[in-house]
Amino acid sequence: MxxxxxxxxxxxxxxxxxxxRAELASKRDAGAxxxxxxxxxxxxxxxxxxxxxxxxxxxxxxxxxxxxxxVEIVVAPAIPVGFSPHHLSHPGTISLRLETYLxxxxxxxxxxxxxxFPRVVFVNGHGGNSAPLRSLCAQMVTDGYAVGMVDYxxxxxxxxxxxxxxxxxxxxxxxxxxxxxxxxxxSPEARERVRSAIEGLPARLVQPWxxxxxxxxxxxxxxxxxxxxxxxxxCGYFGDPAKATMENGALILEATVRGLAAFLExxxxxxxxxxxxxDAASPRLTREISNAKQAS
Length: 296
Known about the structure:
By secondary structure, the chain is α/β, with parallel strands linked by helices.
């Protein structure tokens, strides 16, 4: 979809893939927090690239990491393919089975932690990944591995949600928020392709799990669970993408990055309970990531 797109959004000193083993050893010895973006390769209607979730989680992670000033931090390569079986009716979607996805996440985190880094946080960009990530983190933390997760858009929601102009005032799928962020982060050519493709699209506010022509949604009304099945007759989006603009995308991006940066710094500096400790007098905790930047 893009011509020549920037692959990183922060200086190379924050980018794991651009560092040597000696430089990464120095990061480890400084107690750096490791951020692992996670996303998906899946259909996003006829106006956003299939890499949207991975692009947004990686870009926001890198931009946020570059604003963290009180702790060392490094952004690992994004895990591009996620858990997206509900999008497999459409070409372009690549999905891992649940057990495969969990194994990839666990092996990634263990590789980082077993090499001596103190803590990992997955920064997620795809709704279908959220439940698997939360379950995996619960298991790994109980097993003694310091692994957390956050959706990239969650820490800044209070600031960016009021900026939305359309009928869905939260994140959806290929929605106003995702379209606006994509336009803010990509090339002028890609931005124009999105802008022209979303023009005139009607808002879609009925969840894709509801059969056509049925008005009631007990899944939402009663807080139940059912995957958003995007079948071949579906428009491929949920939200109001036509209201997205590059200008508003820049504002949403700033609020999102600011929120994630604040979370990453607070997460890194907070001692958290880790593993199983049956002796009430000896709780087991993660260590706070040291204030290496200030000390230097």
